[in-house]
Amino acid sequence: MDSILAQLRTLASQADSASRYKILDGLRALQLQLETPHDTLSRLSGLPLSTAALSETTKAAPLVLSRILRYLASIGMIQEVARDSFAANTITETLAQSGYEGGVRHFFGNVGPVLQAFPDFLSETKYQDVSNATHSAFQKAFPTDLPAFVWLPTQPERFAPLQQVMTVQGASGMPWFSVFPFEKELGNFTGSHAFVDVGGGFGHQSLALLKAFPALHGKIVLEDLPQTFEQLPFRLDGIEPKPHNFFEPQPVKGARFYYLRNILHDWPDDKCVAILQQLITASGPDSQILIDEMVLPDSGVSWEATTIDLTLMASFGSRERTTAQWNALLDTAGLKVLRIDTYQARRQDSIIQAIAK
Ligand SMILES: C[S@@+](CC[C@H](N)C(=O)[O-])C[C@H]1O[C@@H](n2cnc3c(N)ncnc32)[C@H](O)[C@@H]1O
């Protein structure tokens, strides 16, 4: 047994990204196969304790603290170096970075209550497809009738972690513009705005694009809600920040690219059509709309994609979409799909290039 584990460790240390995920998937499948129902419950029920308790470290009673640390060590989140002596490991160090720390706060504080309310919501709605931004498990979990993305921005302590985690979502893979032929499609465009990052959060995609194509300096616009810019943790050199609600008329006309990453998966179809129609209205003859989203196959969808899909259903009454669902939605909005480039096969992260019909 030990030698199998040692071999796996050697393999993992030499693996490239695709093989690393293959090993991770294999181990995950094996873990699920080996777990008893009790193991599964323990794994799930223990986790929510960690964030709240850790946030109080300075005031915690030693006994309480040592039990929590013992638990964290037992699941590999920290290292137990001697009796009552613990040290950070690489997981702890990763989770201490702001994007991942935001992830812990967001997934436990924002997503957790929604997923807990989800079974009751499904039961009350008799397991029917509701697809309604104002009627999802989110409104059961929190004291609001508003869509999640209208209420959350009014709650800074919830909204900041959400924006932080977006900066690291999918950050480890290949960048989209290394597969989508960005430079060729930009061509000799001479307009003042080459790229509008619609709902771009803290601007991590704009920054990565500018780093790869420095000639875009001054030609990128980052749009998001005003509350996002109030939380912005860094300066955006060469990128114009523009507070804007994407349900209202698009202020930047005739840009070459209007780019939406993980925007449409947050909204049911009717709202997506409303967002896209604002972009079509602002488009010039050279404009393109780039949709950066998962494009799911009809079967064999990965666990990461299905997990996010159910979280979207619970939180926003929305979904990840298959190729057929994207084609139908974009057709209804008045768009023609030119090409779809998948840049991360594992989650089917793809760029859908579309123009007005
Ligand atoms: C899932 S995040 C995606 C952020 C970023 N595009 C990315 O891929 O990391 C959705 C983004 O949409 C923004 N958003 C939500 N409703 C909006 C609205 N009505 N107008 C503009 N931005 C909005 C949120 O603030 C958030 O930054």
TrEMBL record:
The active site is at H265 (proton acceptor). Gene3D superfamilies: Vaccinia Virus protein VP39, Winged helix-like DNA-binding domain superfamily/Winged helix DNA-binding domain. It holds the Pfam family Methyltransf_2. GO terms for molecular function: O-methyltransferase activity. GO terms for biological process: methylation. Residues 189-335 form the O-methyltransferase C-terminal domain. Coiled coil: none annotated. InterPro entries: COMT-like, COMT_C, SAM-dependent_MTases_sf, WH-like_DNA-bd_sf, WH_DNA-bd_sf. Keywords: Methyltransferase, S-adenosyl-L-methionine, Transferase. PANTHER family: HYPOTHETICAL O-METHYLTRANSFERASE (EUROFUNG)-RELATED, PUTATIVE (AFU_ORTHOLOGUE AFUA_4G14580)-RELATED. This is O-methyltransferase C-terminal domain-containing protein. It comes from Xylaria flabelliformis.
